[in-house]
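INTERNAL AUDIT FORM
Audit reference: QA-55
Scope: verify that the stored structure record matches its stored sequence.
Auditor: D.O.
Record contents follow.
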Amino acid sequence: MRNVINFNKNWYFSKTSLSQECMADDALKTGLPHTWNAVDGQDGGNDYWRGTASYYKTFARPELPPGGKAILEVNGAAMTAEVFLNGKKLIRHEGGYSTFRTDLTDGLAEQNTLCITVDNSSNDSVYPQKADFTFYGGLYRDVNLIIVPGEHFDLLTDGGPGIRVTPCLDLNTRTADVAVETWQNAARVTLTLEGESQTVTSHDGYATGMFHLKDLRLWDGPDAPCLYTVSARLDSGDEISISFGCRTMEIDARRGFLLNGREYPLRGVSRHQDRKGAGIAISRKDMEEDLAAILEVGANSVRLAHYQHDSYFYELCDRAGIVVWAEIPYITRHMDGGNANTHSMMRELITQCRHH
């Protein structure tokens, strides 16, 4: 069975680029979320510190099931991050707003030093580099250690959930065919939706099933933000679930935006993910307060500018019936060296958020 261990406590922070098992003289103990630009990034001077800093912590080898894996999950590291375990580099991730993961298993010792270097310095290949907002640096979202059995759902492809749900609606009959796809290293998968279960065979790490929903409950804006939940389980006990809404969205040149076939004027706001005094190192409570303010003004939509936001805020919008405009930080200045980065950020955005 899967065990998600929050890894936010007992870090050390240094404005020094470290990768080995060592302690910096200027290291400060801190917890996550954290940004080093919470103050200088908000004074309006546009002279905030940009560079490479390090976060490191020690931890004992976690207990693993037979053949199990220990996967590190980083939900936001701005802007480029490298992960080192006991001095060995495991991964480099470019892009400050999406989730990425890496496998720690083979490098684990009885006692371990984990170091994550984070770089928000100016460059010509990782977006954004010019805009009207601060490019904060830091480990500013949750970091988790995910323990899974030997047979488990995919965790490493583009930071995705290992499951994809695609509902195909018939608004006239109020029915939907729901395709569920999963990726895993197991022979079979049991899928469950609305009390109906089916076991499907996995071929080359891929499995798919189909459900038919009658008397459909539409996701239909703030008045009816109905959601369904589908779960997938392996014989090893690894289990994942995902919530989704059944709705159609269209844009018509004459009628505008259409939700479930009817004209639906979008009235909303644009949201950045920072707070005074905290920068982008915000809490779930902060996100809930943001959504409450958006709902208070009567909005039915929000633009999440100018990058992928925390997955929790997309979930809040799903539950509140808020239509979201999502985007990547390709903004203001085109960089010839940044094409690969735009592609990877867009792929991660779609993989991680398409069910919202």
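Auditor finding: record pair retrieved intact. Residues 339-353 form the longest helix (15 residues).
Action required: none
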